[in-house]
Design goal:
- The complex is a heterodimer of chains A (113) and B (116).
- With 113 residues, chain A is mainly beta.
- Chain A has no helices and 11 strands.
- In chain A, strands 2, 4, 5, 6, 9, 10 and 11 form a 7-stranded mixed beta sheet that branches. In chain A, strands 1-3-8-7 form a 4-stranded antiparallel beta sheet, with no helix packed on it.
- The radius of gyration of chain A is 13 Å and the shape is globular.
- Chain B has 116 residues and is mainly beta.
- Chain B has no helices and 12 strands.
- Chain B is globular.
- The termini of chain B are far apart.
- The chains are: A mainly beta (113), B mainly beta (116).
- At the A-B interface, strand 4, strand 5, strand 9 and strand 10 of A face strand 5, strand 6 and strand 11 of B.
């Protein structure tokens, strides 16, 4: 079974621009969660989508948004980029059951200059 | 709210030494507990898990036991290898529903370096 894939793997953007990251979950998984990883803040939960609906959201500004498609693929969008948005963005897929474990993709390294 | 505290690192060991990385948590109810490992330049890999009190998770020689009375989930390995060098994260998943959906709460991570 193929694992979680994320594209692109690396991205360099300028302040004020917007960016879209993509995540394809493991086949059969209906839940996709997104996390931001930085050296200072560690791993922080952004949001979770299940069957095209956002079920949960972390404490991030509205510039961070996402969506999920009918095939469970998910995209995350960050508008009006700031230097502090530079991070590794990880997505994780799971079955969506309450006690499920999450399987992570390799991440997208975003650098904002 | 939920929180996870890991022992401060980094941890440096010689090959074949014993490893313990401490992890304690604060959560409502009975969360599921996980250890993830991250190798340089990669995402997180699930190492082991435990979903109820006294469960022992194990994988690749690593073990951790869910201790409800001490709210702990310490990671142990009897003999580490150079290939175990990585960052280890303890995490919890609340089973309370609602705002717990899809959310793992992570510790700050512990860098492990194993020398030959």
């Amino acid at each position: 079974k193929a694992g979680v894939t994320q594209t692109p793997r690396y991205l360099i953007k300028t302040r004020g621009q917007q960016v879209t990251l993509s995540c394809s979950p493991i086949s059969g998984h209906r839940s996709v969660s997104w996390y931001q990883q930085t050296p200072g803040q560690g791993l922080q939960f952004l949001f979770e989508y299940f069957s095209e609906t956002q079920r949960n959201k972390g404490n991030f500004p509205g510039r961070f948004s996402g969506r999920q498609f009918s095939n469970s693929r998910s995209e995350m969008n960050v508008s009006t980029l700031e230097l502090g948005d530079s991070a590794l963005y990880l997505c994780a897929s799971s079955t969506g059951l309450l006690t499920y474990e999450q399987y992570f993709g390799p991440g997208t390294r975003l650098t904002v200059t | 709210g939920d929180s996870v505290t890991q022992m401060e690192g980094p941890v440096t060991l010689s090959e074949e030494a014993c490893l313990t990385i401490n992890c304690t948590y604060t959560a409502t109810g009975y969360p599921s507990l996980f250890w993830y490992v991250q190798y340089p330049g990669e995402g997180l890999q699930l190492l082991l898990k435990a979903t109820k009190a006294d469960d022992k998770g194990s994988n690749k020689g690593f073990e951790a036991t869910y201790r409800k009375e001490t709210t702990s989930f310490h990671l142990e390995k009897g003999s580490v290898q150079v290939s175990d060098s990585a960052v280890y994260f303890c995490a919890l998943k609340s089973n309370a529903g609602g705002t717990s959906y899809g959310k793992l709460t992570f510790g700050q991570g512990t860098i492990l370096t194993v020398h030959p």
